[in-house]
UniProtKB/TrEMBL annotation:
Protein name: Sorting nexin-7
GO biological process: autophagy of mitochondrion; endocytic recycling; piecemeal microautophagy of the nucleus; protein transport; reticulophagy
Keywords assigned by UniProt, alphabetized: Coiled coil, Protein transport, Transport
Biological source species: Colius striatus (Speckled mousebird)
Residue intervals of the PX domain: 34-155
Cellular component terms per the entry's GO annotation: early endosome; phagophore assembly site
Gene Ontology molecular function: any one: phosphatidylinositol binding
Family to which the UniProt record says this protein belongs: Belongs to the sorting nexin family.
Coiled-coil positions: 307-334
Length: 392
């Protein structure tokens, strides 16, 4: 990226303070005026004889004419979000549907109903709905409108109107059967490039995700040790009268650095980790979208082969091929447009995320450095005072 290279050149006239560096990265135009605002908040626990689950309040404010009111407030549980995602994938198989946080969590990482887990999931669900709201096609899907506006019993009734279990199983079997028939013969080069890009992107983003979690874990261990390190100096000062003030000063510096470390950890957990993990989930979604596009292409290829091998029923096959050609063209256009949009969003998110991490690190080290420099300066003054008193 040439613009990033220019920023990294650090010309003498270029401001390099944390507050001014961020301005060097703001290349995007201002977003268009929005007419749909969604907030996910106020998680509530529900305990029944059968299960325990969390619901979230979804508040929608809009000026769109297709909505009967300008504001809605409903409560949704995780499985309602899953239903919405599946309906969007079913209706738009070659569009990039935003990811949801995983339903299950790794054992030993965090408790399922802990405040930390619930808050992390709430933020992810909030981002999921707003990603859909900002999408030029998904935002106008009827099931999205129902999700935002229907009360719980209305949504439950609406869900029952969808395809039954056997129908869904049949669709899954057909999709799997189509995917194992072999590679696509006539795949356009642009989609081969997309597939190669995603394979590389998947490897890189997974490595970044693992490293970021390791850094956060090491920071937490360091933080826990610092919390024990400071009080030891305070206790020590009680038995060392001659150096008591210096030991207390060290303890104070450690306490300030400990608080700075805690803020740095919060920055990692709130800004870096969620973004990286979201794009880890995006890799599976994009690979799935590319496979579904290939399935449509494969169906067209099989019909073309069948037409070449059969002398009869040419009119019927020609009509089916015409429909499939239209379907493939629509799928290709939809995916290419969504791909460009996704890449722009990804690059913008990554730029903003790593810039925030860099500024967070700058603030952290500057704060810790200033803390210890101030302490050393005070010790130098005290030393001069003692030397003057000895001379006198």
């Amino acid at each position: 990226d040439a613009s990033l290279a220019e920023v990294n050149s650090f010309s003498p006239s270029m401001p390099i303070s944390p507050s001014s560096m961020i301005n060097q990265y703001k290349f995007e135009d201002e977003p268009e005026l929005r007419d749909l605002f969604i907030t996910v908040d106020d998680p509530e626990s529900h305990i029944t004889a059968i299960e325990t689950f969390i619901t979230y309040r979804v508040v929608t404010k809009t000026s769109r004419g297709e909505f009967d009111s300008s504001e809605y407030e409903v409560r949704r549980r995780y499985q309602d979000f899953l239903w919405l995602k599946s309906k969007l994938e079913e209706a738009h198989p070659t569009l990039i549907i935003p990811p949801l946080p995983e339903k299950f969590i790794m054992k030993g990482m965090v408790e399922r109903f802990s405040d930390e887990f619930i808050e992390t999931r709430r933020k992810a669900l909030h981002k999921f709905l707003n990603r859909i709201a900002d999408h030029p096609t998904l935002t106008f899907h009827e099931d999205f409108k129902v999700f935002l506006t229907a009360q719980a019993w209305e949504l439950s009734s609406h869900k029952k109107q969808g395809p039954g279990l056997l129908s869904r199983v049949g669709q899954t079997v057909r999709a799997v059967a189509s995917s194992v028939r072999g590679g696509v013969k006539n795949r356009p080069e642009v989609f081969t490039e997309m597939n190669d890009y995603m394979e590389t992107f998947s490897q890189k983003i997974n490595v970044l995700d693992k490293i970021a979690h390791r850094i956060y874990k090491e920071q937490r261990e360091y933080f826990n040790e610092m919390k024990e390190y400071g009080p030891i100096h305070t206790l020590w000062s009680a038995s060392e009268e001659d150096i008591a003030d210096s030991l207390k000063g060290v303890a104070s510096c450690i306490d300030k650095c400990c608080k700075a470390t805690e803020r740095r950890m919060a920055g990692l957990s709130e800004s870096l980790l969620p973004v990286l993990h979201e794009y880890v989930l995006y890799t599976d979604i994009l690979m799935g979208v590319l496979k579904r596009r290939d399935q449509i292409q494969g169906e067209l290829d099989s019909k073309v082969d069948a037409l070449a091998n059969k002398k009869t029923e040419k009119d019927l096959f020609s009509e089916e091929i015409g429909k499939l050609e239209d379907k493939v063209e629509c799928a290709n256009n939809a995916l290419k447009a969504d791909w460009d949009r996704w890449k722009q969003n990804m690059q913008s998110d990554m730029r903003a995320t790593f810039t925030h991490v860099a500024e967070n690190n700058l603030r952290y080290y500057e704060e810790c450095l200033a803390t210890w420099q101030s302490f050393l300066a005070s010790q130098a003054v005290d030393l001069h005072v003692e030397e003057d008193s000895e001379d006198r």
